[in-house]
Amino acid sequence: MELYLLTGYNGFYGQSRKPWVSLSTPTLIKELRVCGLTVHTADWHDLASGSFNPRDCNILYTFSQLTHIRDWLKDQLHFLAERNRLIPSLPLLLCHENKGYAWLYQKSKGIDTPRAWYLCDPRDIPSDLPYPIVLKTISGTNARGVFLCRGHQELLDRIKALVPAISPTVKLDHLRRRYLRGGRTYPGYPGFEPKRDADDWLQYMRPGAAFLLQEYISGLDCDYRVIAIGSKFYLMRRLTKGGDFRASGTKRFDFEAAPPAGLLDYARSIAQRFDTPFLSLDIGHKGGNNYLFEFQASHFGTAAIVRSQGYYRQVSGSWEFCKGGSSLEQTLAEGLAEYLRGQVN
Ligand SMILES: Nc1ncnc2c1ncn2[C@@H]1O[C@H](COP(=O)(O)OP(=O)(O)O)[C@@H](O)[C@H]1O
Ligand SMILES: [Mg+2]
Asked: Measured between alpha carbons, how far is 261 from 263 in angstroms, rounded to an integer?
């Protein structure tokens, strides 16, 4: 089975400890070969120059959190996806660092709790929204863009705080358009009227922000990070602190926690619906129910893999804990090989 590994500059394939830390790419390639895969490599230079132009190939790609590279990569990979199999798949690429698209995607896969609303303007906030409600910025990590809003006014204030103020340059330009363009006409557009046009322009230039609203699951003192790599499920419990509902970013990890009943089945049912060998899930568990707060198929934190004592896997219908560590590169390579052979259960 053939595979292209598309790395960043200098063989970068992320992420390891942090987004800017690469895995050992030579080790990853070695492990992929141990799994029986024929591995070719290309990097972003090859993508930029157009010399990387494969057809009917499996492409495992690295990604980036940096906005300009992320946008560029999305454009490039979008076209590669027309003729090749992207790993993770194209929709999961679009989910990355985009909680809005991620919600639309998970909903299309039948995963619709907690309920969410992906909006671009406060006027679309439903009148029957259940409060308190969780407001999330579209990108962001470590809970920096996640807020609890107790009522409609607090929600509006929070959204407003996410939006930058109109810049002095825009304000000045508005005055110029309004008061210094008295004689201006536009041939073919007899309706042009400078004052109204200036006000319409200002309205159009008003900064805004898209955002996600998510039903609040109250009373949790932790969430669970489950990382599914092929048929292996790594678990880590993350504790909240100081009356704050957010477990992400607290750095209070528990790698020994036993999974609550049904949690791993839930994680597995999601992994089976998403087209990827690697999936990181942030799950809330309450009253026997599971709630998907967030997921990533690439560039997720890997602590649950490297710091836990082992992983869970299903054997004859029940979950078994398999003790023992393996390197990140080996784990990813084996998970990918399983996925490509269609052996993930
Ligand atoms: N709908 C929710 N109800 C209750 N707690 C939530 C909800 N969404 C997120 N959280 C908490 O907030 C944390 C951060 O949210 P998350 O969407 O994972 O953002 P981030 O990308 O910053 O990690 C989660 O780890 C969880 O503890
Ligand atoms: Mg999270």
From this structure: 6
